[in-house]
Design brief:
single chain, WD40, about 35% strand, Neuraminidase, 2 helices, 6-blade_b-propeller_TolB-like, four-stranded antiparallel β-sheet, four-stranded mixed β-sheet, globular, Dipeptidylpeptidase IV N-terminal domain-containing protein
Length: about 700
């Protein structure tokens, strides 16, 4: 009865938070400790308390955004027969997936080349199975409302996987946890990670008796992502609460038999390496945990994401060698201490990721860019639908950055790249056609005039540079008749609105009456906000300062009714260049205030906010932005480069209530815009090979992985 009363009190507290549209973070409440009881957590039934608002109160429209690098991945899953590897002088690489969307992180199910894998063909990462004779992959049981699944494994008629659908008690904690379900029978999904614990990258022992996991535990996320501060944790599949830390500091475990685990970590000399821990056949009877690991791979090259062979003599690893640009799969002989190259002899100019090995040790798999001349999808759509957690809010990923809609919503401006290849592209909002403006000049951050259909404001110059670097605000005008011609490069007039000697001027946002721009400038020595005449610029005293101080104010967004300007700033902690939060101010400089997303004013959580790319909803009642509140969803070292892999999109009311997460994946998601103007019918988008640009597989390895060691 006492537990029932406690559950009732906690349920009442949660309903109060939900009804007030506040995030349900209970870390400071005395009842929070009761959540450690699995029985009480079930009694509370948090699933029924998810803050699902009536549809009339939900945000509506379409949010368009970018995911760093993802559009060019083109991943498919391949295998090689190890009886015919390059080691013996011949090989045949076999593609197992169908060139639709991106497919990755596979495991063999049996020796007939059946695999379970992740695919994003349904708009978010979900679990699929393919085998010989299947005309298309079969979607396996998963969490219907989850936007993220990862690292699936099938063992003894059970499916194990990572999902990120249950919001933790506190902000700045990943949502990732381990789940399982039977492949036959009721298919009930069971959480194996204790509530409040974050788990990544599962592995199942040969007999299916034990699970190894890279666990962050219940600690708040500390901002790490180059190497996550995870431990290798072991527990029996029959008793997931009986967890033991097998080794401190390690990720991506893989079993050899039931008593040996290999994993990766960054060694003290800076090289990512593979380590090994060994213990008796029943790890639970071993009392000397955590075990001191043994380094297996030598310094001088990076080794990641190991996959152990069941013969106990070899491991497959992804490597980055000194002076080389590409990640490749190699086999390391544990007895002879030598590497045998595999993929560099097959596809020397492609990256290869996350190897996996068949149980009979005869097949080696991995994922890579599928190549240009393949069947299936060979083009990147200009706009791609993405699963949304909110019924009436559509989500579109663009192939580019900094999207901005024309006043009637029929056109979209974007920047395809943020380097010397950058320019401004204009795309039809159905994704069917695309044109180029001001080719050959670096441009970023577009703002379409709300009152002039063929006027776009942008920043010309390098992005993320110092206050003194010359970056200028430009007014770009083009003739509509060119959109009906055969021209791909449209003539335009470029009018510079800021003086060259004023340094770094960027991130323009146009007022709803089309008369003014708010932008960020470093002309004072600090990056603050200014308001500028949208036609004549600053040359006739058409400029005034909006904010001032020894901090960074950036990425402003003018509200649709013109009464507020939202922006990101670290004015609350000027010495921390990562501590950005949301602020709003009136255009006359009055009523400056901070909007707290991670918790109430005065809480320690709000000091960890890193929020950028703030944008208003069409009705001015909501904000969409990129934030670090959800931590890291997957091991970043297993992905191509993501500058900020903790960056996900959120929506929140202007008063700080109603926080909802929109994206959940291993990518950096950002530069959102909210569709203004007329209706955009997502059912009429041009997808597949009918539109878009060529899929080239051009993306980077993590830039923070370096070989600059002695």
């Amino acid at each position: 009865m006492k537990m029932i009363r406690q559950a009732t009190n906690l349920r009442h507290l949660l309903r109060k938070h939900v009804n007030n549209r506040r995030p349900v973070y209970l870390s400071s409440h005395p009842l929070t400790s009761l959540l450690c009881s699995r029985r009480l957590f079930k009694a509370v039934n948090l699933d029924r308390l998810t803050p699902t608002m009536p549809s009339s109160m939900d945000p509506k429209g379409i949010v368009v955004f970018t995911s760093v690098g993802r559009s060019q991945y083109g991943f498919d899953i391949f295998t090689v027969n190890l009886n015919q590897t390059p080691i013996t002088g011949s090989t045949s690489e076999h593609r197992l997936t169908d060139c639709i969307s991106i497919n990755y992180n596979a495991q063999f199910v049996n020796e007939d080349q059946s695999i379970v894998f992740i695919s994003e063909r349904s708009g978010c990462p979900r679990i699929y199975l393919t085998r010989r004779g299947l005309s298309k992959p079969e979607q396996l049981p998963s969490v219907p409302d989850s936007l993220f699944h990862d690292r699936p494994i099938i063992k003894s008629h059970h499916l194990y996987f990572i999902s990120a659908h249950e919001q933790p008690e506190k902000p700045f904690q990943s949502w990732s946890a381990l789940y399982s379900t039977e492949l036959h029978g009721k298919r009930k999904i069971i959480r194996l990670s204790p509530y409040g614990v974050v788990d990544y990258s599962p592995a199942i022992s040969k007999s299916g008796t034990f699970v190894a996991i890279a666990s962050y535990g219940s600690r708040p996320w500390e901002g790490d992502f180059h190497e996550l501060k995870t431990d290798i944790v072991v527990f029996p599949t029959s008793d997931p609460n009986n967890r033991l830390v097998a080794c401190e500091r390690g990720g991506w475990p893989t079993w050899s038999g039931d008593s040996t685990i290999f994993f990766h970590r960054q060694a003290d000399d800076g090289w990512w390496s593979i380590f090994r821990v060994q213990f008796p056949e029943n790890p639970l009877e071993f009392s000397e945990f955590p075990v001191l690991p043994l380094r297996i791979t030598p310094p001088g090259l990076h080794c990641f994401t190991p996959a152990a062979f069941n013969d106990g003599k070899r491991i497959a690893v992804a490597t980055r060698r000194r002076g080389k640009c590409y990640r490749h799969i190699e086999i390391f002989d544990l007895e002879r201490k030598v590497f045998h190259p595999v993929t560099v002899l097959l596809n020397p100019a492609f990256h290869h990721y996350n190897p996996f090995v068949s149980s009979n040790s005869e097949s080696l798999g991995y994922h890579r860019f599928r190549g240009k001349s393949t069947e299936g999808e060979s083009r990147v759509p200009h706009l791609e639908p993405v699963a949304s957690p909110i019924k009436d809010l559509g989500m579109l990923r663009i192939n580019g950055s900094f999207p901005s809609f024309s006043p009637d919503g029929s056109l979209l401006a974007l920047n395809p790249a943020l380097d010397e290849n950058g320019d401004i592209k204009v795309v039809k909002s159905d994704g069917s056609e695309r044109w180029t403006l001001i080719k050959g000049r670096v441009a970023f951050c577009n703002s379409w005039s709300p009152t002039e259909k063929y006027v776009i404001y942008s920043s010309l110059g390098p992005i993320f540079e110092s206050t003194k670097t010359t970056v200028q605000i430009a007014r770009v005008t083009f003739e509509p008749s060119y959109l009906n011609s055969d021209l791909q490069e449209i003539p335009c007039d470029v009018k510079i609105l800021t003086r060259e000697d004023t340094g770094n001027n960027a991130f323009p946002s146009c007022s709803p009456d089309g008369k003014s721009l708010v932008f960020r400038s470093g002309r004072s020595g600090h990056k603050n906000l200014y308001i500028l005449d949208a036609v004549n610029g600053e040359f006739n005293d058409g400029i005034r300062k909006l904010t001032a101080g020894p901090w960074i104010d950036t990425m402003p967004s003018w509200s649709p009714n013109g009464d507020l300007i939202a922006f990101s700033s670290n004015m609350h902690n000027p010495n921390n260049v990562d501590a950005f939060s949301i602020y709003v101010i009136k255009p006359d400089g009055s009523d400056l205030r901070r909007i707290y997303a991670a918790g109430p004013k005065g809480s320690s959580d709000v000091d960890m906010e890193r929020i950028n790319h703030v944008c208003f909803s069409p009705n001015g009642e909501w904000l969409v932005f990129a934030a670090n509140i959800g931590g890291v969803t997957a091991e970043p070292v297993s992905f191509p480069n993501q500058f900020q892999p903790y960056g996900d999109l959120y929506v929140m009311r202007l008063d700080g209530s109603g926080l909802r997460r929109l994206t959940c994946d291993g990518y950096e998601n950002g530069t959102p815009t909210w569709h203004f103007g007329g209706e955009l019918d997502m059912r009429r988008l041009c997808l597949g090979n009918d539109a878009g640009v060529e899929l080239t597989g051009e993306f980077d390895e993590p830039l923070w992985i370096t070989s600059d060691f002695n």
